[in-house]
Amino acid sequence: MINLRPNEKRAKTAITLIWIVFAFEMASLVSSILQYYFLKSVENGEILTIEAATANDRRQIIIGLATTAVFIVSAVTFIQWFRRAYFNMHLLRGKHLQHAEGWASGAWFVPIMSLFRPYGIMKEIYENAEELLYKEKLIEVEDRRFQTIGAWWTLWVITNILSSALNRIEAKADSLETLTYTTIGHIAGSILFIPLTLLAVKVIKNYVEMEKLLPELQEAGTLSTTTSTDLLDS
To answer: How many domains does one find in the chain?
Structure first.
């Protein structure tokens, strides 16, 4: 008897935190827009006070730090859900999987590898769940699931590369023009965060729907014929 560990609560927590990050990111979007107009006013020669500049900088710093803090918490909850999903799939599929269960968390922190391995593990989780459930006619395989994963990961990589590049440029910005361009870049990044959020939530929800059905495989007797060798080898 294989006892899968509960994961639905972790999924709900991850989704909740994603929406909280989204709210902060939208606040950041508004703040960046305000900064853009502030910078354009300076560029146009309007007389602005030091107090106004200080208020703008303070607002940007506070929102930036708050968004970063919430993002870190959100990342932790997402990885906890992700690793539990891969752990359960290891119980079901064992040697059929390409990576050790620990890579579901570790791969996010390894340079270069973080650009592709988490996506590969997510795809692997989906593929194996669909294969097991489809054999018992518990689901109909939908290619749209894989399209969602691909779009989610593409946007994730783009937004992270964009954010890293902008932060490096902004740290060395020595002109009003450069700061204006980086502000525009942050606005673009925040706008991209909208579809990224929707896709991230969809990726989790899609898998939750399948994960709920996995225990039914034991009742159907599928696991005893497909994974007993793997469990003995592990």
So the answer is: 1
Residue 13 within a domain: yes
In a domain, 192, yes or no: yes
Say how far apart CA 53 and CA 73 lie, in whole Å: 31
Residue 141: give the domain boundaries. Answer: 8-233
Distance between CA atoms of 107 and 95, rounded to whole angstroms? 19
Closest CA to 199 of 45, 30, 18: 18
CA distances to 25, 53, 186, 188, 207 from 60, rounded to whole Å, are 12, 11, 11, 16, 36
Tell me, yes or no, if the pTM score tops 0.85: yes
- As given in the structure block, the two tokens for residue 146 are 């894989």
pLDDT digits (tens, 9 = 90+) for 19-72: 999 999 999 999 999 999 999 999 898 888 899 999 999 999 999 999 999 999
Within 13 Å of residue 160, how many CA atoms lie on the same side as its CB?
A: 12
| 55 C-beta neighbours (distance < 10 Å), count | 13
Q: Is the dihedral of CA 164, 167, 168, 170 positive or negative?
A: positive
**Where is 23: in which H helix or E strand?**
helix 8-43
Q: Evaluate whether residue 119 is within a structural domain.
A: yes
